[in-house]
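Fold it.
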Amino acid sequence: MTNQRILAHFHESAETKIQSATVLAPHIAQAIDLMFSALSNGNKILVCGNGGSAADSQHFAAELVGRFERERFPLPAIALTTDTSILTAVANDYSYREIFSKQVQAFGQAGDILLAFSTSGNSGNVVAAIEAALEREMRVVAMTGKGGGAIGKMLTDADVHICVPHDRTARIQEVHLVTIHAICDGIDVALFGGDVNE
């Protein structure tokens, strides 16, 4: 029974990724173009999400500031999930809904990108961060699932919505991880061209 459950996770994950690939590829390409353009113009990427999506935020920022698969200069990305003093102060003094939006207001500038993760599309603090980003004339790349929720309804034509066509949180997060790697690879190729092994 245990082996069957384990195999079911792997098979469902693989099937979800394959089904998502064709649907999401054009949106991922748009996200790459948007981020590359912003980075080329001296702008930065702010990233936020809760729980596993907080880990995804930090993962993405680490790939840009450090490296993905090739040596290059650091690229400016900040995970808004990492400063416990800011997070706890804002949550305590204002509300948990504002833990990311206050940071977007502090660090975000016109032309910057907000990469926002919410598997449900309804995380209140991520919604608030997007509202703050749009007010500051930033562009948004939203990674969601479950139909996109509230976030899917608030994005503009200038933003990018990468909505995984699945309702299970684990599967959505697994596709988000592949998407992160595809975006990092796309940015590197846009910067340097070719493959890492060339």
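The CA atoms of residues 102 and 121 lie 20 Å apart.
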